[in-house]
UniProtKB/TrEMBL annotation:
The keyword Transmembrane helix applies. Keywords: Membrane, Transmembrane, Transmembrane helix. Coiled coil: none annotated. This is Transmembrane protein. It comes from the Bacteria. The keyword Metal-binding does not apply. The chain crosses the membrane at residues 27-46, 58-77, 93-114, 126-143, 150-169, 175-194, 201-221, 233-250, 271-290.
């Protein structure tokens, strides 16, 4: 008897094998796709953030946010899932596409409008947040993402402007930076343990208490610890200690197992159509370049000698200091002990090249020594001088000798009704640097008005927000007048030579 014909076993397709795997594996694969695409799309941003951290920038706090968010996500994931087991893939795709397009607009358009304030705003990190959020929506679904809504809110704290404002209000030093980071840590703890409003408030207060106590111990016994240590150690300590304590308290009398929750099935299926979308947007984002400010530096070279806070510069030969004022409020922006020293320097004799009546010219020389040099990149000088009604030209680079490169700028001041030129340069190291700015105005009278540093914190903050709202409209002087370019260039070279000569240096 002939054997009965049998059909060959059906080989499952790749899609069937994928959907037949454990939900944990599918979650991991989707997150690998999101993280890999994010790395491709925002690799220059990550490199720039590492540059900021390596050079002691306050923006290094950003690394605290994703790690805190992962700890918070563990706490949220332990709660019983309460969203309805339904999903609408059309809604997921529509909302996800809207978010991905917005990420492209932020990085491609908005970043260019505010490129002068790149390090202050870091809009590229906002675009990164939008990309990760939108990719999660199209790959996991809107409902699961909404379940972790407070975690996404925490991740939005990568937008640094609120953090910078807190650091300024708290005083501007390392302790202030650590205290501002505690706002992130305490919020993270409240979300992680907040199954009820009472537990959330208790976690918030306990985290603040633990973190500030650690911060006080560090400030007392390790005052010279690096800025990054002040930002990270109290934050992580408070989250881990308070979170673990409240977990053990809630689980007393029961088995202590961290992974005792069932991995629920994924609601969003049919995700293969979303994979090319995420990859295509990641490639488009990778094509958009960051502005030059992302990896620029105002520091030309090493300083000619030891830098001292509040120390005036040496007047060059043929010039004498005729006035001096110290502005100490800049320490909130440029670090503890920073002082803006303003010196009026007047030429001994007039020069017909710089004044048709051969009157001796007067220039203003402002210098700031900072133990946080990267803050020169974060807070442009125009914020210090309240120049909200001024029109700026693009900068011109000039060689001042000794390896020093200066930036020449022309400004029309509609408030003072004058045109003035400035020359700026800086030298030092990543731990201590000096920025020097020289001003010359087209009014050559002895009582001519010069740009003056703002005197209070609130006036400086008002200037900051005004300039931010204007964006790059502040650079709208299309026909700059460099009337004093020769004066500033010659004076700048003599000033640089005087600083090296005063120390007997010929470097």
């Amino acid at each position: 008897m002939a054997p009965a014909d049998t059909d060959p076993p059906k080989v499952p397709s790749f899609s069937e094998r994928y959907y037949g795997t454990h939900p944990f594996i599918r979650v991991a694969l989707r997150w690998l796709l999101i993280l890999g695409s994010t790395t491709v799309a925002f690799w220059p941003s990550l490199v720039s953030l590492a540059y900021t951290t390596r050079h002691g920038g306050v923006g290094g706090y950003v690394w605290v946010v994703p790690i805190a968010a992962m700890l918070v996500a563990i706490g949220v994931a332990r709660r019983n899932r309460d969203e309805l087991p339904i999903h609408d893939r059309q809604t997921d795709i529509i909302v996800g596409i809207m978010g991905l397009v917005l990420a492209l607009l932020v990085k491609g358009v908005l970043l260019a409008r505010f490129d002068l304030y790149f390090h202050l705003l870091r809009l590229d990190l906002v675009a990164m947040w939008l990309f990760v959020l939108s990719s999660s929506i199209v790959l996991f679904g809107l409902r699961p993402v909404t379940r972790f809504g407070w975690v996404w809110y925490l991740l939005l704290m990568v937008f640094p402007l609120p953090y910078y404002l807190m650091v300024i209000v708290f005083g501007g030093g390392n302790f202030a930076a650590g205290a501002a980071t505690m706002a992130i840590a305490s919020t993270a703890t409240a979300i992680a343990v907040g199954r009820t409003h009472r537990r959330g408030l208790l976690g918030l207060l306990a985290s603040l208490a633990v973190g500030l106590a650690v911060l006080a111990v560090m400030y007392t016994f390790f005052p010279d610890a690096p800025l990054l240590v002040y930002q990270q150690v109290p934050a992580y300590t408070s989250i881990i200690v308070v979170g673990l304590a409240m977990y053990l308290r809630a689980r007393r009398g029961t088995p202590k197992r961290m992974l005792d929750r069932k991995v629920e099935p994924l609601a969003a299926k049919q995700v293969w159509s979303a994979v090319p979308l995420v990859i295509a947007v990641a490639v488009a984002l990778a094509v958009v370049h960051l502005p030059p400010q992302a990896d620029s530096t105002v520091i030309s070279r090493a300083a000619p000698g030891e830098l001292t806070f509040g120390q005036p510069v040496v007047a060059p030969a043929g010039w004498q200091t005729t006035g001096r004022i110290n502005y100490r409020q800049v320490d909130r922006f440029y670090g503890t002990d920073a002082v803006l020293v303003r010196q009026a320097m007047t030429a001994d004799v007039g020069d017909p090249r710089f004044d048709k009546f051969s009157r001796p010219r007067t220039v203003m020389v402002d210098n700031i020594v900072s133990n946080r040099p990267f803050s020169f990149e974060v807070y442009p000088g125009r914020m210090v001088y309240g120049l909200t009604d001024s029109r700026f030209s693009v900068t011109r680079t000039v060689d001042l000798g000794y390896g020093v490169k200066g930036q020449l700028l022309s400004v029309v001041d509609d408030n003072l009704l004058i045109t003035w030129n400035s020359l700026r340069f800086a030298w030092g190291s990543s731990s201590l640097s000096q920025r020097i700015t020289v001003f010359a105005v087209d009014n050559h009278d002895q009582n001519a008005p010069f740009p003056t540093p703002t005197g209070t914190l609130m006036s400086t903050l008002r200037t900051m927000f005004t300039l931010l709202f204007r964006g790059n409209a502040v650079l709208d002087e299309n026909a700059p007048s460099y009337k004093d370019a020769d004066l500033l260039t010659e004076f700048g070279r003599e000033l640089v030579a005087a600083q090296f000569g005063a120390l007997g240096s010929s470097q």
